[in-house]
């Protein structure tokens, strides 16, 4: 029940020595401030790193051919082989729980020779022969026009979707792009779309210097036949591609007479596995943040407990008078606990408010920054963290006041009245 006299007494006790109270409160304030800031910084770093995946389907693996390292069924060691279009259908039929199997072919690259021209302008770009599903595995924003579709695939249309970096390198600023033609290794392709991808770690600029054309027209124009350079394979949600990877490789090995134990013959990059490692790293960082923040907060709680012991010692005479007038042990204990909880919560809430204000200022500064080139994005803490912090404060306040409260009720009225 609310008692104005009791709360007046609490405030009077805490304000009787302002400097001591502020120093005590600062320990809890700093502890909760550090805890919230560490968690928000970890979340900001996590958001920035995950942004680097550019929205790519993380339950994906990439697979390519290498050299057979073991002889098998009359086939020699050291031979080379190629994926074929028929491998794609075999993988889809024989391996369950796969969502997308995209065959890909590729030409060029920014480190290669100039392979794309338009008028007097030339450039070296990555050229991909793809199916429409690739946009689900490597999401991109279509700024103008459209992406390739199955009509383009079936009719082997020589059309292309270019990145903003290709546009900047081959076209004048006000020049119309859609419907124009570019030459890729001497073959004309009509531009039907312009895309933009997100990325960081210095890759964002290069990701805009790519060109996508239909897989079938790529194969026809550049004499690839039924060959496939590499594949992007995405599993259904709930079925990690890591668990299906061996089944996919077994299908390929069987079709190309590769020894079942030849792990070097098929190259792969498991994006799901790498993404899980990143997640585990940030789980560990969150644990470290909680550990460090809790230790700092604990030091503040110990400070409050020590100060409350001093307060009890200073008020020994007062406690003796109250006991002599009939105050119950619970009344004395409750008074000390309330003072401890009140001081802890007020100082803790101030720490949360200051931390929230700092996080808000950081986010305001980041609003005008191109975060695609940063490793830090939207630092924040969710409400669960705030409620957890409040629960920690209440429990900490009880623990901080428990020992002083027990000391207070052990004071005998006669002994207390004798103290000066």
UniProtKB/TrEMBL annotation:
It is found in: Cell membrane. GO terms for cellular component: plasma membrane. It is a multi-pass membrane protein. GO terms for molecular function: transmembrane transporter activity. Residues 21-248 form the MacB-like periplasmic core domain. Residues 291-412 form the ABC3 transporter permease C-terminal domain. Keywords: Cell membrane, Membrane, Transmembrane, Transmembrane helix. Its main location: membrane. Belongs to the ABC-4 integral membrane protein family. This is ABC transporter permease protein. The lineage of its organism: Bacteria, Pseudomonadati, Bacteroidota, Flavobacteriia, Flavobacteriales.
């Amino acid at each position: 029940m609310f008692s104005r006299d009791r709360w007046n007494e609490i405030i009077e006790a805490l304000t009787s020595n302002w400097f001591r109270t502020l120093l005590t409160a600062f320990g809890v304030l700093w502890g909760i401030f550090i805890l919230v800031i560490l968690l928000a910084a970890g979340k900001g770093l996590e958001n920035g790193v995950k942004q680097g995946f550019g929205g790519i389907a993380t339950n994906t693996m990439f697979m390519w051919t290498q050299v057979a390292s073991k002889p098998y069924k009359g086939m020699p060691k050291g031979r080379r082989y190629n994926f074929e279009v028929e491998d794609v259908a075999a993988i889809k039929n024989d391996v369950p729980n796969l969502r997308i199997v995209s065959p890909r072919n590729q030409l060029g690259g920014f480190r290669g020779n100039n392979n794309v021209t338009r008028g007097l302008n030339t450039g070296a770009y990555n050229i991909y022969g793809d199916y429409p599903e690739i946009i689900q595995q490597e999401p991109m924003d279509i700024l103008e026009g459209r992406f390739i579709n199955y009509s383009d695939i079936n009719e082997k249309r020589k059309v292309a979707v270019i990145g903003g970096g290709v546009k900047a390198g081959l076209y004048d600023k006000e020049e119309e792009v859609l419907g124009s033609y570019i030459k890729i290794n001497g073959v004309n392709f009509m531009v039907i779309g312009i895309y933009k991808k997100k990325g960081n770690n210095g890759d964002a600029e290069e990701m805009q210097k790519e060109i996508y054309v239909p897989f079938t027209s790529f194969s026809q124009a550049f004499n690839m036949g039924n060959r496939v350079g590499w594949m992007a394979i995405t599993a259904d949600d709930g079925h990690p591609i890591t668990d299906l990877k061996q089944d996919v490789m077994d299908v390929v090995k069987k079709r190309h007479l590769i020894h079942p134990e030849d792990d070097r013959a098929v190259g792969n990059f498991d994006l799901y596995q790498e993404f899980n490692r990143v997640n585990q790293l940030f789980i560990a960082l969150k644990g470290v943040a909680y550990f460090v923040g809790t230790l700092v907060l604990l030091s503040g709680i110990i400070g409050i407990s020590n100060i409350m012991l001093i307060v009890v010692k200073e008020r020994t005479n007062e406690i003796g008078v109250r006991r002599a007038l009939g105050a119950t042990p619970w009344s004395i204990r409750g008074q000390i606990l309330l003072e401890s909880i009140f001081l802890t919560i007020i100082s803790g809430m101030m720490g949360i408010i200051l931390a929230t204000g700092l996080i808000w200022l950081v986010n305001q500064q980041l609003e005008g920054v191109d975060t695609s080139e940063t490793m830090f994005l939207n630092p924040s803490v969710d409400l669960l963290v705030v409620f957890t912090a409040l629960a920690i404060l209440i429990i900490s306040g009880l623990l901080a006041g428990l020992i002083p409260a027990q000391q207070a009720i052990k004071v005998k009225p006669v002994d207390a009245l004798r103290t000066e």
